[in-house]
């Protein structure tokens, strides 16, 4: 790209993407959820951007990061030079910018101060930065309760134990690491400006971007859906963590819930355990097999829809790719269509979604089933 | 076999498995209609651990379902199996289990084939241990673990009880002592010297330490009052054993708030530890090694004749090969050997000693009676001693050629033994396992007597028999 002759033009053209956030942790968590293959395709739209990662032509991980998680988000359509005068393109649908980026590098850059560790708002611990020593502040902020000694302040910043009431309001005073991200357009690097706070050092990272190549498409047709489950992520997380590491195949078995008694004559059957289970997660390994049966209990399965008995197997290696996203999510939606295509959506709790009612980001995985298990 | 544990019993059960996993990898399950015992032996067979639970421990317990293949030849209904402790423990120790499990069902389903348990590698015919966890909200988790057939029993060699020393101590007290001896990476061996009113514990300093790592030598003296019961048969008695398994025992006893009952006889015989709970009976056996040059309880030598090859200094002859905590016995031979009268094994070992100790009425221990009552006699003392060379073989013996070398030197050192000769020839004596002054004193003692115990003769003959040649002296512990 001949930057020299474009340079005067670029001065006038605003960058394709300009986004900033005062705390990178949520953003980093979302990216980390799909960080199982280094090369990710990033598609930028007006409403946010989508990070897509695929593995083995079988597993597709997608992180939907909406614009509202950023403090500032401006997307300027990268209008190609030729149709610049013809403004007839549909601005809603086609007007996207896409590039590929080494995802691992991006996450490492965000974590350059060691402060982009898991935000884990679901874990209930607001102070996950405790491990890291923050940079010493210049002593200019006076909103901390008056410990003038910088040594003890540093300690108090690190542990957060002496911040008093602030610790009950999330990280109100702990601003975290701020980031400003710009992407000038195709061929330009993604530029990150990362600063821990106003007085601390700032880092500028330029990450090379690549032209986006077409990636695996696994469209999920809701009309062909045969199984749909919504459950708390902890249930699925516990189930997957209990599997023996030697297992290589994971089978989801679903059976339609028993027919609802129409006239009330039918009593609740005491031998419910003997019927075929509604949801069974099953795995076989070297040292034995594991089955986990879940009843149709609202406390366990918030939603259970199953049209016909299904049994599909997936490679544990692929399912375990979802664990990182699963761990930081609150709710999981699991859908399987009649071909065995599984769609796992993890709702990622946003630290500020509660307040402004913004849409929470989510990560979706789609995985093809193993062929030999097709029912 | 079916056993159901409720949430309160699951915790001690998991603790027991944790302790078992620190002893050895394999878990042997042995279930009779009244008790179930879980046992393991470490890889060097120097430590053995067994938990026995009575049926009252479980909320439900039964052995022998209609389709279960039972082992009738031992005269009772017995279900056995073997699996990796880790695989069972990883299920029960999972963090979600403690929170959510309300009931745990363990059941053993034996292979489908009839009585033929030799080939179990065919699909669908394996025995399985089924762990069914009933969690809150009606979630049921079923783990099926492959169960291997228990081909060999590892039974501890229980020493004769007539000269046993007894100690009882709480886990906290003994842990406070042992905290002084960090066992983080290495597995240190501790020397315990049980005196009249004091117990001396010190770290075992090995002269074989190649890099001089053990720069730190710790010695601790504890008053015997620290022990709830202190009954040492002959003072001073010195034994040495490794800490790793002992620590596992202490950790278990502490988690269960149960006292440890230690029993031991002489330095080469294993240390037995009993931890008894309400419905459980736990036995730990840790093999000990003799400390070279340690003071011995009084023992008189009655030498009557001399043979040239027995010119070994007496001190060498006194070092016994440590007795292994568990002997591998195959099931077939166990059936015969376990019936060996106890008195026979006792008399065998008595001849090996220079003077039989005065007859002491055998104390009765409820636990031992239980052991003997077990139909398959898994725990019945196997007369292990007669198979063990009691004396340090090979290295202290001189070959004819070596003796010629000694004579040729003309230095008047005919009474030199092989090790000394080797030292002399090699020029560096880093392999000395005890201090020289004491040995030379002992050698003079031997010279004056020029006699060797006839019982020793017998043992030496065994030592040098052809099949023992290959075994040589294999130290139980790598120092």
TrEMBL record, chain A:
GO biological process, any: DNA repair
Presence of keyword DNA damage: yes
InterPro entries attached to this UniProt entry: DNA_clamp_sf, Rad1_Rec1_Rad17
Region span, Disordered: 120-171
Subcellular location: Nucleus
GO CC annotation terms, alphabetical: checkpoint clamp complex
SUPFAM superfamilies, A to Z: DNA clamp
Keywords tagged on the record: DNA damage, DNA repair, Nucleus
Bias-annotated ranges (Polar residues): 153-164
Family stated for the protein in its record: Belongs to the rad1 family.
Protein name as annotated: Rad1/Rec1/Rad17
Source organism of the structure: Mycena maculata
Phylogenetic lineage: Eukaryota, Fungi, Dikarya, Basidiomycota, Agaricomycotina
UniProtKB/TrEMBL annotation, chain B:
Basic and acidic residues bias (residue ranges): 305-318, 441-450
Gene Ontology cellular component annotations, sorted alphabetically: checkpoint clamp complex
Segments of this protein annotated with the region Disordered: 287-368, 437-479
SUPFAM superfamilies: DNA clamp
One Pfam family here: Rad9
InterPro entries (UniProt xref): DNA_clamp_sf, Rad9/Ddc1
Listed Polar residues bias regions: 341-352
One GO term (biological process): DNA replication checkpoint signaling
Record-given protein name: Rad9-domain-containing protein
Organism: Mycena maculata
């Amino acid at each position: 790209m001949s930057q020299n002759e474009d340079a005067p033009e670029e001065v006038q053209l605003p960058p394709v993407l300009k986004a900033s956030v005062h705390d990178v942790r949520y953003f980093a968590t979302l990216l980390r959820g799909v960080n199982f293959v280094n090369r990710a395709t990033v598609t930028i739209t007006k409403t946010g951007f989508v990070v897509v990662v695929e593995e083995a032509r079988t597993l597709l991980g997608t992180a939907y990061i909406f614009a509202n998680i950023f403090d500032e988000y401006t997307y300027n359509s990268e209008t190609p030079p030729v149709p610049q005068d013809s403004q007839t393109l549909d601005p809603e649908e086609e007007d996207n910018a896409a590039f590929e980026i080494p995802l691992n590098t991006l996450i490492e850059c965000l974590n350059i101060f060691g402060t982009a560790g898991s935000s884990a708002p679901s874990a209930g611990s607001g102070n996950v930065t405790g491990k890291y020593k923050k940079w010493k502040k210049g002593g200019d902020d006076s909103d901390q309760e008056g410990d003038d000694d910088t040594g003890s302040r540093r300690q108090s910043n690190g542990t957060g134990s002496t911040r008093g009431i602030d610790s009950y309001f999330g990280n109100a005073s702990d601003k975290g690491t701020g980031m400003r991200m710009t992407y000038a357009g195709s061929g330009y690097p993604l530029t990150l400006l990362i600063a821990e706070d106003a007085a601390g050092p700032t880092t500028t990272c330029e990450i090379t971007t690549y032209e986006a190549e077409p990636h695996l498409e696994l469209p999920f047709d809701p009309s062909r859906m045969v199984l749909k489950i919504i459950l708390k992520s902890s249930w699925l997380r516990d189930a997957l963590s209990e599997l023996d590491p030697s297992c290589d195949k994971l089978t989801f078995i679903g059976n339609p819930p028993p027919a609802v008694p129409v006239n009330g004559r039918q009593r609740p059957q005491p031998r419910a355990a003997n019927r075929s289970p509604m949801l069974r997660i099953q795995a076989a390994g070297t040292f034995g097999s594991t089955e986990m049966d879940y009843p149709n209990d609202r406390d366990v399965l918030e939603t259970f829809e199953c049209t016909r008995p299904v049994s599909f197997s997936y490679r544990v290696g692929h399912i375990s790719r979802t664990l990182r996203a699963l761990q930081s999510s609150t709710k999981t939606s699991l859908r399987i269509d009649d071909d065995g295509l599984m769609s796992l959506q993890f709702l990622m709790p946003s630290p500020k979604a509660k307040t402004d009612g913004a849409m929470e980001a989510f990560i979706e995985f789609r995985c093809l089933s193993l062929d030999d298990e097709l029912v | 076999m079916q056993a159901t544990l409720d949430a309160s019993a699951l915790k001690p059960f998991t603790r027991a498995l944790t302790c078992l996993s620190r002893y050895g990898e394999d878990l042997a399950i042995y279930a009779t209609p009244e008790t179930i015992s879980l046992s393991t032996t470490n890889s060097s067979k120097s430590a053995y651990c067994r938990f026995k639970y009575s049926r009252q421990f479980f909320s439900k317990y039964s052995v022998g379902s209609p389709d279960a293949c039972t082992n009738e030849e031992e005269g009772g209904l017995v279900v056995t199996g073997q699996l990796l402790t880790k695989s069972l423990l990883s299920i029960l120790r999972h963090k979600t289990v403690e929170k959510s499990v309300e009931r745990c069902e363990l059941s053993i389903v034996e292979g489908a084939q009839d009585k033929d348990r030799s080939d179990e590698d065919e699909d669908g015919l394996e025995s399985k241990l089924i762990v069914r966890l009933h969690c809150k909200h009606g979630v049921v988790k079923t783990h099926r673990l492959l169960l291997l057939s228990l081909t060999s029993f590892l039974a501890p060699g229980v020493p004769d009880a007539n000269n046993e020393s007894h100690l009882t101590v709480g886990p906290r007290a003994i842990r406070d002592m042992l905290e002084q001896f960090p066992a983080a990476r290495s597995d240190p061996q501790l020397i315990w010297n049980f005196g009249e009113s004091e117990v001396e514990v010190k770290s075992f300093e090995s002269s074989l330490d190649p890099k001089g790592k053990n720069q730190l030598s710790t010695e601790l003296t504890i008053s015997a009052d620290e022990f709830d019961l202190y009954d040492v048969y002959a003072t001073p008695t010195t034994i040495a054993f490794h800490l790793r398994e002992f620590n596992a025992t202490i950790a278990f006893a502490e988690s269960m708030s149960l006292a440890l009952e230690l029993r031991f006889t002489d330095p080469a015989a294993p240390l037995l530890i009993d931890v008894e709970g309400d419905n459980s009976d736990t036995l730990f056996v840790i093999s000990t090694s003799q400390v070279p040059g340690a003071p011995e309880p009084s023992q008189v030598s009655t030498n009557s004749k001399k043979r040239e090859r027995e010119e070994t200094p007496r001190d060498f002859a006194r070092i016994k090969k440590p007795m292994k905590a568990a002997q591998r016995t195959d099931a077939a031979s166990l059936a015969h050997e376990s019936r060996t009268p106890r008195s026979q094994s006792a008399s065998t070992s008595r001849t090996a000693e220079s003077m039989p100790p005065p007859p002491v009425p055998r104390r009765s221990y409820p636990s031992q009676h239980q052991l003997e009552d077990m139909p398959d006699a898994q725990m019945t003392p196997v007369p292990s001693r007669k198979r063990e060379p009691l004396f340090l073989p090979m290295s202290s013996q001189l070959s004819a050629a070596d003796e010629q070398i000694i004579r040729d030197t003309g230095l008047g050192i005919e009474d030199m033994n092989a090790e000394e000769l080797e030292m002399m020839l090699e020029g560096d004596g880093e392999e000395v396992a005890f201090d020289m002054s004491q040995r030379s004193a002992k050698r003079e003692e031997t010279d004056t007597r020029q006699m060797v115990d006839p019982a020793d003769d017998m043992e030496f003959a065994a030592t040098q028999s052809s099949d023992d040649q290959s075994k040589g002296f294999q130290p139980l512990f790598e120092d």
